[in-house]
Amino acid sequence: MKLTKEQLLGFYKTMTTIRAFEMKAAELFAAGQLPGFVHLYAGEEAVATGVCANLEQKDFITSTHRGHGHLIAKGGKIDLMMAELFGRSTGYCKGKGGSMHIADVDLGILGANGIVGAGQPIATGAALACKYKKNGAVVVCFFGDGASNRGTFHESLNMASIWRLPVVYVAENNMWGISNNQKNHMNVADIADRAGAYGIPGVAVDGNDVIAVYEAAAEAIKRARSGDGPSLIECKTWRHRGHFEGDPAIYKDPKEQEAWLKKDPIPRLAAKIIELKYASRAELDKIEADAEAEIEAAVKFAQASPIPSPEDVFTDVYAE
Amino acid sequence: MSKVGIIANPASGKDIRRLVAYGTVFDNQEKVNIVRRVLLALAATGVEEVIYMPDYFGIVPRAADGIGSRHRLSMDIVSADIELTGTQEDSYRAALELNRYGVGCIITLGGDGTNRMVAKGCGEIPLLPISTGTNNVFPEMIEGTSAGLAAGVVARGLACKPPAIHPTKKLVIYKNGIPVDIALIDAVILKDTFVGSRAVWDAERIRQVVVTRGEAHNIGISSIAGVLEPVGVMEERGLVMEVDQGEANLLAPIAPGLVEPLRVKDYRRIELNEEIKVTDVPCLIALDGEREIEVREGDEVKIKLTFDGPRVIDMRTALREAALRGCFRGDAVAKHVRRLKEEV
Amino acid sequence: MKQMTYAEAIRDGMRVEMKRDPNVLLYGEDVGIFGGCFGVTAGLFEEFGPERVIDTPISETAIAGSAVGAAAAGLRPIAEIMFIDFMGVCMDEILNQAAKMRYMFGGKAKLPMVVRTPCGAGMSAAAQHSQSLEAWFTHIPGLKVVMPSTPADGKGLMAAAIRDDNPVIFIEHKQLLAVPGEVPEGEYVVPLGKADVKREGSDVTIIAWSWMVQKALAAAEALAAEGISAEILDPRTLVPLDKEAILKSVGKTNKLVIVHEAVKTGGFGAEIAALVCEEGFDLLDAPIKRVTAPDTPIPFAPVLEGAYLPNEEKIIKAVHDLF
After folding, report:
1. ipTM of model over 0.85
2. Cα-to-chain-centroid distance, residue A226
3. DSSP 8-state class, residue B14
4. Is the CB of B27 less than 8 angstroms away from the CB of A193?
5. Mean pLDDT, residues C295-308
């Protein structure tokens, strides 16, 4: 597999930007500056980064309630995302959606989603559109282990398989559906096993290794783009934080948490980059500092942005 | 007391070769079914204890749990005492532990990669490998019932000599003078930098191949040897091949469904204990189909062929030998029936 | 003008729009070679081929949800749900996805999609294949709800629904499918949100939609013989609702009877009654009457189903109560 220095450094930039965004969101939420609730992607950055690095602007993704990472990896604008978290009228959704509904249809981001598993049929339909229009675009559907138990999973994978749709289902298995461990919510250990039931390839990869994710996604996306149909990639990963900010995650075994923190995808990539002499520690620190500065600028933009006016409640219900 | 070990790898059969080739998605429920048949057959041979590698899915306990009450097992089934990492390291640690327990043999479920890890820790304990991986040469697709019967007779000392149990070859990889890893079938030098998703399928990346054996019916990189100059399991030699990108001069099934044209520039036999120097650094070395060793500028790597691989049970021969000795007739049967009655 | 049945007219509406716009495609259970469970899509598969008229697996959730995705990605899908009773199976896709996507995204998405589905009792199909659930959808901002009562309206409203950039629930009535009528040929659009006076009158306004328009017209005929002149107003689309037409008619007759086949409690008749009370209380000379199904599931035996359904006699009785 060929991966250039620029690609690896690009992965590092995306992953550290996601991490910085999430840590800032956690801080702002704790300080009471963000309304509603936020679900953070910290720890799972390698999945969105490795997958989306294979996508073009014309390609689509569907995301989840834990969607900030997918949006950033697909090219979403940090300042508009942050403004949305603050509920400002400059935000992606003009303050009407919040963290769980950020979308950028022009970038092919068909939205985060507050309903677990709802992205699966939407991605399937978008893939139907891509196939019908013969525009060479593909769709990536992100969802979690919990969503793999929804009926939407079954109906979507079945439909995509019979119609050979250009869609890649990416199961981010962070092993928790809120507080319910995977062991208790499904009788398979590998979601990839379920692919067999739909007659499509199923692959399990280390979701904390951005290179392994990139490589598997590259093949699945190539397959989808060339008309060979859907596939399922399971990325084994771990959410560093609770289900939402404020969840103390008492259900997690501290030893297991500690073991997974050691497998944090960002230091892993950093070690590889340094070993290959693609960059020094200082240069990586600079990338991180730049990411943090970008997030700070986004916060300033958001805080300086106007709040929506009450009349805005009534607009955007229907297209004229 | 007769004891048998089981190492069933929950992760085998789902790597990227499902996407880039046409490998089967080998789901864990099917591994459970195989182990269930293994357990029933082991019990029938009079094995008293099964020690297994714990895993994140629980293949062996699930297999035991799903056995109907009419077929209750007359043996203890216990987990080896290892801490799970959820990586291939588990297979190695379990093998060490089963070696320590003194099991009569170890049944493995996995591919070449799984058996490579087990081989690092099993010592003299013979293996009975059942294939549940992708492009396997070391383990065979065999029925769990037959595997359980054969493992049982071996563990009970009813079939323990060649050819029922035979030695195998291996490759030892030395990095800067230190043995760092082994391969049971093949070591493939790739012009890659990253371990990534581990599997090997892209013929264009291959530079050099060293094999312990290779037949034309093998699936995987060792099939290249098979179509050039086959090397059998028991032959005291190996083969080294130089691959380049010129016009293809042979066809070989290097991954499931992928019979690929390749160009082998040069090849030659290697003798036991001969060392092959890896000259083309930096590179990546894949062992038994999995990208493993990253070789950087300045590293010195050698590959040595030996006959010190794990001992392996030939299921067919072992069962035939046991049958000829009357193991499934006469007193043995009466004892077995009596035992079952006592349990009820 | 051409004589067509209601089913043929709706099909013609789809056919004309599919010819006009290559981004329109139709899919659902058995809509292909089988022509739809009620024959509404017959011939479209032959005309447009398997790429544009697609049989789906029995997967209502994926049918509705994929319509959302296809619309967001630039198509104008028509998704058929075989019975409105099955909409419960795909309700999240309608309620939380189709209806809200545009608003949640701050107006930066459009979802031009139509969900076609047949409603209504009258064929002993019992409780799971006979309901009138239009009120559910009117309670979800972001959706439009269309219920044609005639062949011409069926065609024209279908064209409007397909051309609309919002998700439209297009509810066809099973009892109307074979009803014939005059239908304009070629492109024909009836705008959404425009009610239609199906019979002019001066003494009482009867608002009815879908199959109940026929019942109301029959009642009006009988009432005319007694000297009561009833105006029959068909809103045609419940969302958007032509409030102006309703208030205008009530302003003329000063009496209002609302007829719908759905059960009474929480039915859309209550919404219209509330509208008239809030915005046209002074126009009324008498209490508003509702003629609806009772608050029970739909029974199977013909005699029970007959007792369940609103009909001409019940409408006439309600009108008599006002005089």
Report:
1. yes
2. 24
3. -
4. yes
5. 97
